[in-house]
Design brief:
Blueprint (H helix, E strand, L loop, with lengths): L1 H21 L5 H33 L8 H8 L2 H37 L3 E5 L5 E4 L1 H7 L11 H4 L3 H9 L6 E4 L10 E9 L3 E8 L1 H37 L4 H33 L8 E3 H19 L5 E5 L3 E5 L2 H18 L5 E8 L5 E7 L21 H6 L6 H11 L3 E7 L3 E8 L4 E5 L4 E4 L1
Bound molecules: adenosine-5'-diphosphate.
């Protein structure tokens, strides 16, 4: 500033000097005054010009634009206006950088909210939608752009949600049906409102359909297990009481003990199947290092099938085992046996005396291996087929129980197949019979030598 005053005074002095020199002879005072006035006029004009340029730049400068060429030129020209221009330019640049940084952070924050697996809706003090993420639009079926500033209750019309809003107790969530929920495919949403800022609300929604389904399945499972165990237990305790209280003849006692042993065997098989299922769920997927021979697996199944057929006294007229090419399957031997034997024993258990059961192992042209069990039993109606692998799902409840079924056999087969990358297929025609097959992927099958071996037993 001192420099500027010095320059101004120097300019006036120079003007005065020049005026006196130019007007020599016309009087000292006139010359000096004219020179000073002219210098002051020039100074002010130049200043006004530079001020005008600075103003023009400031006016033209958009808040979100980088400082222009004009500002750079002005700051380069020096002087107080140059300095003002320079400082303003730096301030604008810094503001611009801060704006970019804030914008970047906001974009990242919004991207994180968009990536959230929960629906997020920001509501103002009047419950109007300010912003919502993609998941929320899917959950509630509204449009993120079109529905901005719409009242939430105009879009989420569920009475339970309206009651939740009205009650104002947001310490818990509310469960409502989601968008596209139908009785056949129910969708359940957990909606929770959180207050923040000045009366603003953050609405979070979560799809809990799978959780609810799993919970319902868990409840059903516990109820089924309890029921399955309670029945033989009741029978057992009844017999024990009879044996304790009544003086029985030896023959009667023997009969009761046989029945008791049957019931305890039933409980044992159920517990064994439950343990097998929990082991299958809890252990890692089988790798490709252990190989089981199909010949040995089928031989084991055959032995079991024949023994069972004899025990059930409903010997099927033909029990055929087609061992196919000598091959190996990569997987856990005990699991593979459990799956195969479940299919074979089911066929024996459900096929009547005059029927036929055929068990085969084939290596398909594309290298996959197929284990198939066909029977000429009662067949299964199409409506039951999709549910057969559910735990405790039975079509013929009494036949299942009579023959020692637990209702878990096909659930075990499905698990084993999945763990070995195999596919379980069920085809059945009522009155004609059923065909169950497990197809193993080519990577898990290797053929040792080609030898067809068909053994048929009367
Ligand atoms: P279970 O121990 O009752 O046999 P599974 O899970 O093995 O249980 O089978 C489920 C139901 O599928 C059985 O209760 C039975 O009704 C039906 N089922 C299974 N295999 C056959 C078959 N080969 N022929 C007819 N019905 C079958």
């Amino acid at each position: 500033m001192i420099n500027r005053w010095t320059a101004f005074v120097a300019c006036l002095l120079l003007g005065g000097g020049l005026g006196w020199w130019v007007t020599a002879g016309k009087g000292l005072t006139f010359g000096l005054a004219a020179g000073v006035a002219a210098a002051a006029f020039c100074w002010l004009s130049l200043d006004s010009l530079r001020l005008g340029r600075l103003l023009a730049w400031l006016r033209s400068e958009q808040s979100n634009e980088a400082p222009g060429v004009m500002a750079t030129a002005m700051s380069a020209s020096g002087g107080v206006w140059g300095e003002i221009a320079d400082r303003t330019r730096r301030l604008l640049k810094r503001r611009d950088e801060q704006y970019q940084e804030i914008q970047g952070r906001l974009d990242e924050f919004l991207a994180a909210m968009q990536a959230s697996p929960s629906g997020v809706v920001l509501l103002d003090a009047q419950w109007r939608i300010e912003w919502s993420n993609r998941m929320a639009t899917q959950h509630f079926g509204f449009d993120a752009q079109r529905d901005v500033m719409q009242h939430i209750s105009n879009l989420v019309r569920e009475p339970a949600f309206k009651a939740y809003m009205a009650a104002g107790n947001f310490s818990r969530d509310v469960v409502i049906p989601g968008n596209f929920s139908t009785p056949a495919r129910p969708v359940k949403l957990s909606v929770h409102v959180h207050s923040y800022g000045r009366d603003r609300k953050l609405l979070l929604s979560r799809d809990i359909t799978a959780v609810e389904l799993a919970e319902a399945m868990r409840r059903d499972f516990v109820a089924n297990v309890s029921h399955e165990i309670r029945t033989p237990l009741t029978v057992l305790s009844g017999f024990i009481e009879t044996l304790q209280t009544l003086p029985l003849k030896d023959k009667e006692r023997e009969r009761y003990l046989a029945l008791m042993s049957q019931q305890s065997y039933r409980m044992q098989t159920l517990v064994n199947d439950l343990l097998t299922l929990s082991r299958l769920e809890g252990s890692p997927f089988p790798d490709l290092h252990d190989w089981a021979t199909t010949g040995a697996l089928l031989a084991q199944c055959e032995q079991e099938a024949r023994a069972l057929s004899a025990v059930l006294k409903t010997q099927v007229s033909r029990l055929e085992f087609d061992l196919g090419p000598s091959s190996e399957i990569a997987g856990v031997q005990t699991e593979l046996y459990s799956a195969m034997s479940n299919l074979v024993t089911n066929a024996v258990r459900y096929t009547p005396e005059s029927g036929r059961v055929n068990v085969s192992w084939t290596v398909l042209p594309d290298g996959r291996g197929e284990f198939r069990v066909r029977d000429t039993g009662p067949g299964i109606a199409p409506e039951h087929l999709p549910r057969l692998t559910e735990r405790f799902y039975r079509v013929d409840r009494s036949r299942s129980r009579e023959t020692g079924g637990t209702g878990l056999g096909l659930a075990i087969v499905k698990h084993v197949a999945q763990r070995h990358g195999a596919e379980l297929q069920i085809e059945s025609v009522i009155g004609q019979g059923s065909s169950f097959s497990i197809t193993f992927p080519a990577a898990r099958v290797r053929t040792l030598q080609v030898s067809e071996a068909i053994r048929t037993a009367p």
